[in-house]
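Entry type: protein chain
Record version: 2
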Amino acid sequence: MATAAVSVQLTPAGPDVTEPVPLPRLPEPAADTPVRLNFTLEPIPAQAPHSQVLKQEMLVECQLGVVAADQANQMNCGTGLQEVDQFDIAVDVDLAGAVVEVFWEPSSALSESIGAKLETLDLGQLNLVLGQVVGTSPLRITVPESAAQRYYPQGGLMRLTVFPAPDNEASEAGAGAALAFQQDFRAFASLFYVDPPHPTYTVFDA
């Protein structure tokens, strides 16, 4: 049987496409040549002014407020099991002011005059009273923009406490009493962010 010789010629393969291809090098500018960089900064979105209204139903089971010899004192006369005389108000960052209002229908003549105190919370020795009022319904405490920015730059808590207190005339006379027995209240905290509230704002404007 005859055999045939086969000749095979190998051709070098082309460059490996997986190898990195060097980029042309740009000439470096001279030291005294000005260089202009063009870039765009994304604007930081501004927070729009807004407000929030928080509501709390409150109840004083039995408390007596007495002014004697120009000294004011509060005494409990109930079990305290039903009592909700405090309202903890959580605020967010950018607080620009707050208006806290308390409304009630007196259960007796002795509960016509009530006191309300608003104070900072969780600040330790730096805690202070933001506002305190005594009078008939409704009561109103305002937190100005300066106090909001000073004490709540990162948000936080404030606490409202209601209690029986003789009216201002009795306090000025140095003697008086007030009694809250099964007295319910409605408290509203209107919180304003970025822009402060209007000076005449009330929760009924919300």
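Comment: The chain is about 5% helix and 45% strand.
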